[in-house]
Design a protein that fits this description.
70 residues, alpha+beta, 27% helix, globular
């Protein structure tokens, strides 16, 4: 639940700007991001760098975790 705009289309694909309002009508886009909660849960489970760890549980790799926390 996080909207982003790439700020470097020719870059490495990892550079982006998080947006909180629609760029056309200025209305809020989405509820608060769950990204920090997702990372915190995985760190508590012992994963030092969950964003780049290929061994995290499958439920955290798909949209399953996100759907359960809406």
């Amino acid at each position: 639940r996080q909207m982003c705009i790439r700020d470097s289309p020719c870059g490495d694909g990892h550079s982006h700007i998080v947006i909180h309002y629609c760029p056309w009508c200025a209305k809020p886009l989405l509820p608060a991001s769950l990204r920090e909660r997702w990372v915190d849960e995985l760190i508590a489970m012992g994963y030092a760098d969950p964003l780049f760890d290929e061994t995290i549980p499958e439920a955290y790799k798909t949209d399953r975790w996100w759907r359960e926390h809406i």
